[in-house]
Amino acid sequence: MDLSGSTVLVTGASSGIGRETAIFLSALQAKVVLTGRDAERLERTASILSGVGHKIAPFDLGRTDEIPGWLKRLTLETGPLAGLVHSAGVQTTLPIKFVTQDKAEQLLRVNLLSAIMLMKGFSQRDCHAMDSSVVLLSSIVGIVGRSSTPVYAASKAALIGLMKSLAIDFAPHRIRINCVAPGYVETEMLAEYRELLPAEQFEALEKAHPLGIGAPSDVANAIAFLLAKTGRWITGSTLVVDGGYSAQ
Ligand SMILES: NC(=O)c1ccc[n+]([C@@H]2O[C@H](COP(=O)([O-])OP(=O)(O)OC[C@H]3O[C@@H](n4cnc5c(N)ncnc54)[C@H](OP(=O)(O)O)[C@@H]3O)[C@@H](O)[C@H]2O)c1
């Protein structure tokens, strides 16, 4: 896998899977554009990347209607993107009786609507390079059921539908698009989830992964494989990276 000469935008690059992906892509010689809301955290990720020419671009992806214009202005500075990894996301554990329309809309805005608008932006002329590749972070809970997380699960399942439709529309333009669906991975998001669960329930969650809980690098490797030439004939797919969680 070699990404020299490629500029890749990574959302959620200040934390967890996005941060690890940015680090790995830079080791593969990509120029990485890092986005998230918190400039300081993005600077911290940027400071540990390999190579030169990386850029931070703080932006709140909740401002969905502004995304296409933001991407257009950004790519005027960076040049067309050869890759986009959409790792920004929020998770809530909220049984359906506690779901309010407001909370559901907030989550769907960051996890799903942002992806739709990013794809609208990415498809604009001069925003993407010839032979580019997109990876959306879905989740295993968008594929197999898990209790008490209906809105998050819906957002992650919807990303797969979005990705499949766009795979067909984008193919003539030489843009590939795929999802990666991780099981539970040791990140800040999981740390928050761990706080909510009684210890024995977290232990059961760990045991539900035959290979144990994942590391962010396990997911970053899969993302890079899809972005690089190794994925040149893969589009419209969901790569499950879950330590065997969904094999049972
Ligand atoms: N960890 C897991 O077990 C797991 C499993 C399956 C799928 N996933 C998915 O993988 C992706 C990454 O998860 P993670 O565990 O790495 O999460 P994380 O550590 O909580 O990081 C989330 C990232 O999203 C960014 N973000 C959140 N809201 C944003 C907004 N409104 N605008 C821009 N950026 C925003 C955060 O940056 P700022 O706060 O600085 O804005 C942060 O960089 C998510 O889509 C998640 O659903 C995770």
Can you offer a commentary on this structure?
The chain has 248 residues and is of the alpha/beta class. The protein has a single domain, classed as 3-Layer(aba) Sandwich (Rossmann fold). The protein has eight helices and seven strands, in the order βαβαβαβαβαβαααβ. It has helices at residues 16-27, 39-47, 67-78, 101-122, 150-170, 188-196, 199-207, 216-227, and strands at residues 7-11, 31-35, 55-56, 81-86, 128-137, 175-182, 238-241. Helix 4 links the parallel strand 4 (81-86) and strand 5 (128-137). The mean pLDDT is 97. The structure holds NADP nicotinamide-adenine-dinucleotide phosphate. NADP nicotinamide-adenine-dinucleotide phosphate binds at residues 12, 14-18, 36-38, 41, 60-62, 87-91, 110, 137, 139, 182, 184-185, 187-190.
Brief description of this entry?
This protein has 248 residues and is α/β, with parallel strands linked by helices.
Which descriptors apply to this entry?
seven-stranded parallel β-sheet; single chain; 248 residues; Rossmann fold; globular; alpha/beta; 7 strands; binds NADP nicotinamide-adenine-dinucleotide phosphate
Total of DSSP H or I helical runs spanning 4+ residues: 8
List low-pLDDT spans.
none
CATH homologous superfamily, by name?
Answer: NAD(P)-binding Rossmann-like Domain
Total beta-strand segments: 7
The N- to C-terminal Cα distance equals 31 Å
List the ions, cofactors and other small molecules found in this model: NADP nicotinamide-adenine-dinucleotide phosphate
Q: Order of strands across the widest beta sheet?
A: 3-2-1-4-5-6-7
Give the helix proportion (percent range).
40-55%
Report the average pLDDT across residues: 97
Described by the principal axes of the CA atoms, the overall outline is: globular
The CATH topology corresponds to: Rossmann fold
SSE string: EHEHEHEHEHEHHHE
Gyration radius, in Å: 17 Å
